[in-house]
Design goal:
It is globular, with a radius of gyration of 13 Å. It has one domain: Arc Repressor Mutant, subunit A. 42% of the residues lie in helices and 8% in strands. Strands 1-3-2 form a three-stranded antiparallel sheet. The protein has 126 residues and is mainly α.
């Protein structure tokens, strides 16, 4: 993946997250969870293990940390990670049981409107 010129920490994640960006709310939710996990772990735009992603999401929900805890209470925000991959917004690699997910350049380009400096937002949204 090429360096998009911004990091996960720069992406503003509101509720609902990434509205109108990736065609379906379930796919936008999956992408937002992935971005938020990368933020929490300080990984930048690197592949993340599916297990590590699930553990991070659960830890954030259990701790009541926004925005993941807020999203988890919304019955309309259900992530579709398979759809994220199927539509070309992420790639899955690695052996079964040890899969990794990584957002594609196409997905990162679509995140540009959500980068804080493009939204004129200096606030912390997660």
């Amino acid at each position: 993946m090429n360096d998009p010129g911004f990091d996960p920490i720069d992406v503003v994640l509101d509720t609902p997250p990434l509205t109108g960006t990736l065609e379906r709310v379930e796919i936008e939710c999956a992408a937002a969870l992935l971005v938020q996990a990368l933020k929490v772990l300080g990984l930048g735009w690197t592949p993340i293990g599916v297990r590590q992603l699930a553990e991070t999401i659960k830890s954030e929900m259990d701790a009541g940390n926004k925005p993941i805890a807020t999203w988890s209470r919304n019955p309309f925000l259900r992530p579709d990670f398979a759809g994220l991959v199927a539509r070309g917004f992420a790639v899955k690699s690695g052996p079964q049981g040890d899969e990794m997910l990584e957002l594609t350049n196409e997905c990162l380009l679509r995140l540009l409107p959500w980068v804080g400096w493009n939204k004129g937002d200096n606030g912390d949204h997660g």
